[in-house]
Amino acid sequence: MGHTTIRSRGELLVVGLLLTLGLQVVRSEFGDLAGDWLVDYGQSELRLLEGESQQVQLHIYNVQPKDASLDYSFLVYSKDEQRASSLVTIKKEDFDQLGSWRGLVDVTGERFGYSSLEVELQSAGEKEVHPNPLAIVVLRSRVVDERVTTYVSAALALLMFLNLGTVLDLHRLAGIVCRPVGPVVGAVSRFVVMPALGFGLGRALWPGAWPMQLALFYTALAPSGGLANVCAVFLKGNLNLSVATTTINGLLALAFLPIWILVLGRLLYEDDELAVPFGQLSGGAAALVACLAIGVLLRLCLPRTTRFIFRFLKPLSVILSLCLVGLTVGLNWFVFLEFTWQVLVAALCLPLAGYLATYLLSKLLCRSATDALTLAIEASVLNMTMPIVLLQSSQLEQPQLDLVLVVPIASSLMSLVLVILFYGVRRCLGWNKRQDEDGFDHKQLIAEHEEQEGDVYQRP
């Protein structure tokens, strides 16, 4: 019995030793098969455009197998074949007596992004990869200048604000400004709650990729644009509060964005080179206020002209919104090639969490259901243009900038999809109705305008 136990233990020790040796073979360190062989690429980095092919002057030398009869070969390949393609096999017969080989290797850019040129030694099922691959950077072939997208998107957004400015109620707008509880809630939500949510989600989803974290943070921090105001129109929200909050947040962004960017760059990401586009921010805020003022003046001075806008407010808003979204998505369609589950989770969770947090904050401060809905929409409908401008002003180089644009675009689109679903549910259940006098009612607005015009005509 004792001999049987000893024998069993001995067999276990032998099996364990074999397994250990097997693992050592699989995990063999560099230099075990053919000495400390070296690779020279003739350059420190290879940069090429999509569809472009370049040749790398590869030199493999100091190959000194421990066994002269060892049969080996080298495989040269791209680590990420979706970004760049290259595949060359170099046999033992191709090396000279000194263990050296020199030749050209073709590398073709497939899709913008990063890859590396790997050199791998293969022999009898064992592999060694050289520890210093050649970095490959594939740049996107640009068709349209980025400034075209920015300027045209800004023009469409300003037309949207001009359109909305004609339906503002100055008396209610003055009341909101005199008692700015609603705009204060909107500012706290935009510049405190949303940045915290964006930072936390970014750290959780991309723990080692700070550019993706930065993109999500900018998406959460950027004030909502005219799309939030259009959503407030369709969901029977308080349009005056929505426009006032958008305008105030746009002005406050001139102060809060630099503060957050400085804190973010120096404390969180240890980078003090993040730039703030003061010129574009201040110009955009001034143009926003100017367009709203022009819309109000049109209503006061040219009431007959604004009757057209009253009757076709929703179609005009939809058309401008579709043009804005379609232009941005159409010129940046390539970002959807980088869509991952992390991007999907971020695009879903950020607007949902922003909506719930803002709605609860509004109700805690005794805001009406209409005001709470409006402020929640203002926080959850994400801006698409401003985060792109902020990222373009950062120190991100290409193609890293193109890779992170998927975050603001996908998040903004997902926030609009959620609003559309919310609107459809409210319509189906009969909940999409005006809840109080501050709620926007398109038909009542037209009736009031026609009544005012009738009173003017009846005066002697």
From TrEMBL:
The chain crosses the membrane at residues 148-168, 180-202, 214-235, 247-269, 281-300, 312-335, 341-361, 373-391, 403-425. GO terms for molecular function: symporter activity. The keyword Lyase does not apply. Keywords: Membrane, Signal, Symport, Transmembrane, Transmembrane helix, Transport. The keyword Transmembrane helix applies. It is a multi-pass membrane protein. InterPro entries: BilAc:Na_symport/Acr3, Bilac:Na_transpt, Na+/solute_symporter_sf. It comes from Drosophila rhopaloa. This is P3 protein. It is found in: Membrane. Belongs to the bile acid:sodium symporter (BASS) (TC 2.A.28) family.
